[in-house]
Amino acid sequence: MKTYVPQGYESLLSIYDTQKAISLLKRLFEDRLGALLNLYRVSAPLFVAESSGLNDDLNGVERPVSFDILRSDIRAEVVQSLAKWKRLALKRYDFHPGKGLYTDMNAIRRDEDELDNLHSVYVDQWDWEKVILPEDRTEEYLRETVKSIVTAICDTQDTMESIYPQLAPLGKLKREVSFVTALELEERYPELSPKERENAYLREHGTAFIQGIGSALRSGKPHDGRAPDYDDWSLNGDILVWNELLGRAMELSSMGIRVDPAALDRQLTLSGCDDRRELPYHKMLLAGDLPLTIGGGIGQSRLSMLLLGKAHIGEVQASVWDEETMETCQKAGIILL
User: Catalytic amino acids?
Assistant: First the structure.
């Protein structure tokens, strides 16, 4: 657990103005994202039945928070993301190609092992999902969608700065997206770890999409872990920006074109997860009973701290922190909510 305090850091907004700004920022971004991607807001679950197979494994090692429900034989899990639920919802709600949904996702990451400026046990993000056609399962469609998300982020920054001029010193995010594959990053920086590669690349390019996360690279290891049953590992990636205040790359979104039956079949075998084929959700997907989709998650607290010039994610969300973090922040004048 490590908290970095930028030299001479002072919040650009008071705690009162911060709360007002967070509310406005979220409304602005939701409206812009919905307009650019043709998304409609829906309600989403906080937890799902353990037996449904709808929860996500993320990197495959995180344990979901689970509990039993009184007077029933149901055991429920707090969602870790809504990737699978959203795809099922698109089918149930009769969404047609070109249209999608977005929702608030709140999660508890009990196994988060690097609590720091960007990582919290509490996760809040916009989860979104959109129905696509078979011919949309392409790198070009993926990249155009990435550009739309970055446009929504930058448009939101522009509006926030016009309302809160004190945010101007933060500087503009780079609208132009640099696209690079995880394999290209490994070849470019073979001596660096994946996170170090991200820092080196984003320091130079400002805004980037790192494509192809989940499958093993030439080193035999993936750039990062990704569950085998939602993204197609050849058509997914992360949106990152350079955070000048913290001097590091900052991931804002994990997203991708979702697995079709062939990709799911292949990735379940590669990851040694063939037992999931018997779960209800996976049976539907393998049978071709679910729509083809693209989707992802966009961090609400991360976007808020970035656009409001905050040094710590605890300045824009209420969570639980260890004593060392709280003491460090108190000494630095960083107010944790």
Answer: 56, 109, 125, 238, 251, 254
